[in-house]
Amino acid sequence: MTWMDRLRTCVLLVALAAGLVPTGSAQGLNEALREQVVMVRKGEGLRSTELETTIYRPPGGGPFPVVIINHGKAPGDPRFQARARYEIPGREFVQRGYMVVSPMRQGFSRSTGSYIGGGCNVESNGRVQAEDVTATLAFLKTVPDADLSRVVVVGQSHGGLTTMAFGTLNHPGVRGLVNFAGGLRQDSCVGWESTLARALGTYAGETRVPSLWFYGDNDSYWPTWLYREMHQQYVAAGGKARLVAFGNFGSDAHSLFGGRGGLAIWVPEVEVFLRELGLPASKVHRIALAAHEAPVPAATGFAPHEDEKALPHVKQIGRDGYLKYLEGDGPKAFAISPKGAWAYVVARANAMSAALERCNQHAKDGSCRLYGVDDNVVWVKE
Question: Reduced to 3 states, what is the DSSP secondary structure of residue 66?
Fold first, then answer.
């Protein structure tokens, strides 16, 4: 650790002790996910480092099974890489009752220390990165609502390589690994593709837990032949890995994990994997990633929100639309008109105003009113 790192660490620890770096709205944290940012100590003494770590929690008091998400590596200096939050995929796990923990590895973002690249030795690189996962699990032993007998480790891109390297440690309580487009592209290293595939094969020979892999054909980092070769060498060496080769995705399959667009591809597969591991897989909470931009009307008790047959004025096609609305993410709203017009908007902070606007475009007389907002009926009987 350099003198600058030690100074940063001392200042941060003093600030934390004094309550000057709160886990609250000053950092723009997501209250719906109970987002918290902590500094996790790795090592002891002058060589210790601090890992900037994001934690999401479900409602309730736990203990919660744990998902650790390992981040990728953006081009450029790792110190300038933003904190990886993974709000959208993180919410999928939180809604299933998991605590989600995402550490920024040594030398990334506000984590102290320096990034250890390992030159062209990609196998060593993965193992060094995996040490930060071990440090995170050691920290979680001090967190009362973390159930370390039920842990899944997930990684995207460089974090996928980290995850597969961590698997070699066969850490107690870790049930499975999920690899999203994992690897490390090293164009300056001769034969980096073969070196990467061999590294995965080496990891497999030391890993006992099963894994689930996601790779696409229009990935800007890995050609199709390379991810298939990585998987082949992993399986040939005795590794347990099911490959989901999902073809093309958007403009770049490498981005599958981070956004909404990939959920329909990876969530059902992960649910199957979790059930195979004997872990929770079904949603037990509904959590919106954002809040409504305007005050939400109070529930009226006009009808149970899940009863589409209770909707007044609309025809069957409107009731069918309401069933789709029920499945959507919040913030959401459903509007109807006495003339039978209807519309809904999901997953938008302005859902209420947008639903009314869409409905009135059909009604053409401004008569639309809100029927449902999120999981409540707000309709007032005429």
Answer: strand
In whole angstroms, what is the distance from residue 202 CA to residue 247 CA?
27
CA distances from 226 to 75, 125, 153, 156, 181 (A): 21, 19, 23, 16, 11
Cα–Cα distance, 140 to 27 (Å, whole number):
22
Helix ranges, the chain (H): 3-17, 87-94, 122-140, 158-166, 192-204, 224-236, 263-276, 316-327, 351-363
Over pLDDT 90: what percentage of the chain? 82
Which domains, ranges and CATH numbers included, belong to the chain?
3-276 (3.40.50.1820), 308-377 (no CATH)
Length of the chain: 382
SS3 101: strand
pLDDT digits (tens, 9 = 90+) for 121-168: 999 999 999 999 999 999 999 999 999 999 999 999 999 999 999 999
- Cα separation, 354 vs 351, in Å, equals 5
Q: What is the pLDDT of residue 2?
A: 46
CA-CA distance, 275 to 175, in Å (whole number)? 11
- Of 216-220, 232-236, 348-352, minimum mean pLDDT range: 348-352
Query: Measuring CA to CA, how many Å separate 293 from each of 13, 183, 298, 371?
Result: 36, 40, 15, 18
End-to-end CA distance of the chain: 70
Q: Using omega within 30 degrees of 0 as the cis cutoff, is the peptide bond preceding 331 cis?
A: yes
The band of 330, judged by pLDDT with boundaries at 50, 70 and 90, is confident
CB 1 within 8 A of CB 46: yes
Contact assessment for residue 33 and residue 94, using Cβ atoms and an 8 Å cutoff: yes
